[in-house]
Amino acid sequence: MTSEELIAQIQSSDPDIRTKAWLSAGDVGSPALRSLAQLAVEGELEVGRAAKRAIWQIVRTSGALKFTDDRRRSVIKELVALLDNGQPVELRREVLWMLSEIGSDPGEIKAIAALLGHPDLREDARCALERIPGGKEKSAVSAGN
Amino acid sequence: MSNQTRKLPRRKFLKTAGATFAAATCGFPHVIPSGVLAAPGRKGANDRIYVAHIGVGGRGRGLWRELENLRKTGDAASIALCDVDQRSLARSEQDKIVQGTEIYRDYRAVLDRKDIDAVVIGTPDHWHAVQFVHAAEAGKHIYCEKPACCTIEEGKAMVAAARKAGIASQIGSQGRSQPEAYLMHRYIASGILGKVQHVECFHYPSPVDTSGTRDSDPPPELDWDKWLGPLRWRPYNAQYCPGKFRWFLESGGGQIRDRGAHVMSCAMWWLGADGTGPVEIEATGTPPNQGIWDSAVLMHVQYTFKSPDWIMTWTQKPQDQLPTAEERKPEELNDEITKITRPGYGAIYHGEQGTCMHWGGDGGTWAERKVRQWKPASNTTEVYKSPGHFEDWFAGIRTGKKTIMNVEAGVGVAFLCVLGNLSYMLGRRIQWDPVKKEIIGDEHARRLMGRPQRHPYQL
């Protein structure tokens, strides 16, 4: 399945087609992440839910790969980009928890730590850092702030 | 700064945040804790045990009722109720359930009362571990609804806290204490089946949320932040509560954790497998095709045990593929055992020399006819017959004996449920070290053995 086909099927009005699509998203990987993120935020209720599940499927499929695997690194890179201020808080919160599962590099730890001062995201950022090897020290200063 | 130092101690939290201590309903005096009158740290045989109920909606309310026998005999007195939903507390008052008790919105205020010997935790699953550990730290004996925990790390913390405090614990897999569970246990332990090679657990599917319910403001009676507790924050949605948390992987975990904590609990008890665990877990499943719930609708999990070698499977299958429930004749019914009211789940035990079967496995447990009619030989090894799940717990409080579903056993069963869901979520097989109780290899899966908890609702 291509990224375009995945995005099209996620928007189907048929719940079974949407479900089959998000279950296949892991093989599509990082190229679909930005479009899926947009659908997760702006799509109709069930389309948004399917898009969010597709992103999780990509994250969890990449989690089986080695830290250094390019496919995993490219997923992480796209997720870090979604932490940008221009994205809605709800999406960024979800992305922080995704990164908590597969993040591993000082670069993403730094990107997450930058949110420790954000009024709505600091606790999620702290939790994400707590889970990532090497991130715990960064999170220790912010509990409950 | 260490991880430890950033956590706000519970007592400090109480002072700073102010315990939400609602008005007493009936002016019941604080009492002398029963332990004061008995041997140090132990209740005397005739001492009343003073109990607080944390969570009184849904199942928590059921637990309050199930303690009634012990209240009637004077063995127990329920002197505090706590819930984060005013509607649950109000319902309790309407039923006059709370006569003679005090009402709280924050369980930490309950734990600070020195006159409370024991707590009954009937909150949603994502709260169990935090409240259990805090209660153990406060020296309370604990009855905690099943499943014991939501993650591996939570379970380990519960066991460590209970051991350190030396309290009596009982996890609410009450199927072990049912009359016909005793008959199943006796039959299997006699060796009549030969070596049991496969325990085939079956259950009907988890539901699909077809409501199309959108996020909204929480009802004014509900403290949504406290309901979420250790879970990461998200907006309220009416499909979370009451009771619907069961269908979220983060909390209830679907049928495998809700009823798996019963059916697989019976298997571990009857086969003498408490304290052991599988070496490999492999799950497949069908997710819901819509809605906010995410637990598997259909599911198949295989647990492979070694030394001794056997497998357990957990299968959620369509209703029309479930085994037919045995019809009971009128002469087979009595006050304790009526018709099989929950035919949709149970397990088949496949041994080298035969099979046997039961339905239910929780508050209702029904053994098949040949098991019920079997007469043990005079030299058959007897098995423990529970006097009742609460009664067994009280015996543990009074005598220090190990309870039938102590926290070690309860956590062991919860781990089966957690690992099944983890394999399903990740779409891959998990290797497990049953001695160290940790996932082998798979760095991603190992990270998911724990889940960071939201401040200040932390272990």
List keywords for this structure.
heterodimer, A: 145 residues, mainly alpha, 10 helices, 67% helix, B: 459 residues, alpha/beta, nine-stranded mixed sheet, 29% helix, 18% strand, globular
Describe this structure in words.
The complex is a heterodimer of chains A (145) and B (459). Chain A has 145 residues and is mainly alpha-helical. Helices cover 67% and strands 0% of the residues of chain A. In chain A, helix 4 packs antiparallel against helix 5 and helix 7 (89-102) packs parallel to helix 9. The mean pLDDT of chain A is 94. By secondary structure, chain B is of the alpha/beta class. Helices cover 29% and strands 18% of the residues of chain B. Chain B is built from 16 helices and 15 strands. The interface between A and B is medium-sized, with 33 and 36 residues.
pLDDT below 50 for ≥5 consecutive residues: which ranges of chain B? 1-32
Give average pLDDT of chain A, whole number.
94
Label the structural class of chain A.
mainly alpha
Tally of DSSP helical segments of chain A: 10
Instruction: Kindly report the oligomeric state of this protein.
Output: heterodimer
Distance between the termini of chain A: 44 Å
Shape descriptor of chain B: globular
Number of strands of chain B: 15
Summed up, the helix count of chain B is 16
Poorly predicted segments of chain A:
none
Please provide a brief summary of the model.
The complex is a heterodimer of chains A (145) and B (459). Chain A has 145 residues and is mostly helical. Chain A is built from ten helices and no strands.
